[in-house]
Every structure is written in structure tokens, then in C-alpha cells.
Structure of TetR/AcrR family transcriptional regulator:
Amino acid sequence: MELGLNQEQNRVRVALDRAQRAKVVHNLQGQKLGRKGQITRAKIIAAAQELIAESDDPNISLSAVARVVGIGMTSLYNYFADLSELVLALLELAMEDADEAYIHHLSERWSDETLAEDCRKFVTNFAEFWARNANLLHVRNYLADQRNQQMIHHRVLAAKQVGLLLTMQMDTEPDGRDSMTQGMATALYIAIERVSSVLNNGDLPADVDGSFRPKSTFLLEAQSHLLEMGLRSMREQNRG
């Protein structure tokens, strides 16, 4: 498989920019990365992105990435010790998208008057983020289900970030995992992520009878309504 030239150049450029911001200046052997090394690393990231984007199979392999880039496994291991490290590099790029897509909006306190609109906007933006990054997130979740500790850690941190912001939308500070507020935030996040995951499951149309197959518009509207009800309920309780 060959990457389209313009697409590959764009992915390489993004990966190079990200590496420069993160000050990735050495490979795993401690050798300083020159321009050529930075480009090789960026090409590995671009190839992995392309492979994941084009396949619904979450079981990606480093050897497949190496073949696309046209390098040997020894060379690839100079930049990424294993598949987990490579996937984490891709997830870092995706989470930059998350900040713009929905984290910034969730960080701003939603007024009671605009709560329904804000809930709808958040759920829609979250679902659109999932749609853009569905295969990568399915890879993360697949590896987490295989008890990959790095993927579990990433998944938990992503959930925790949203959960903490949801508790703030309930007009309270996080006060422990056993609190009703924290429980509500966790339940809401699980539902929102699950809806987005289901909507981006390519096997669903074949697996589910048409009469029960979810319609994206209805699912997102229903989830927005549930989020609004959950937030209003907790705001009333915390104010009382």
C-alpha cells in the first residue's frame, strides 16, 4: 500500500510539528534526531495513521507499519519501543483535536438558560470527534480490553478529564469517587462514549435487526436530553 503523496506530506508535516512542540530530539538509543531522523519518525506516525484509518481491524502490527514506510523493524525500533508507544503518539495528536472539539466548551460553565443547547452541542461535538478518530479509538479500546496497561491508563485519563469537568457543570467540586455527583458524572460519560462508539461501529448494520438499529439523530438527541436531565438534577441537589 502507498500513501497518496499530498496526504502523506500533510500527515508528515503534522507529525513533525507535533514532535517539534514536544521537543522529540532523541531516538530510543539516545541519539540526537537530525532532520532525516525527524522525518523518518513522522513517516512512521503517518503510516500508522493511514493503516488505522483504512482498516476496521484494530489488530494493527508494527511490521505492517514498517512495510508502508519502507524501513526494517530494527530501524522502526529506534523510534518506538513497541506498538503501545506508537499508538500513544497517535493518541496525543487526537487529543489535541479533542481540546478544540469539546474540552474547551465543557470547561466553560453552562448557564441554566442555555443548558439544553450546550448539552446538545457537547454531545454532537463529542460524537463528531469520535467519527474523525473512530478507528484509532477502537484500537485503543481493543488494546485496553487486552489488558494493555498504557491503553488502560490513557482511556481512564480521558474519561477522568471529562468526568471532572462534568462535576463542575453540576455546580460542585469533585469530592471523591463514592459521591453521588461523581457517580452521575461517570455514568453520563460512559453513556456518551458508548453512544459515540456504537454510531461508529461499522459492523452494526449487519449485526442488528433494522427495527432496532439506532438512528444517529435520535440517539444523539436522546443522549443530549439525558445529559441535560442529569446536570439539572445534580445542580438542584447541590444547591439545596
The domain at 83-239 is CATH 1.10.357.10 (Tetracycline Repressor; domain 2). The mean pLDDT is 83.
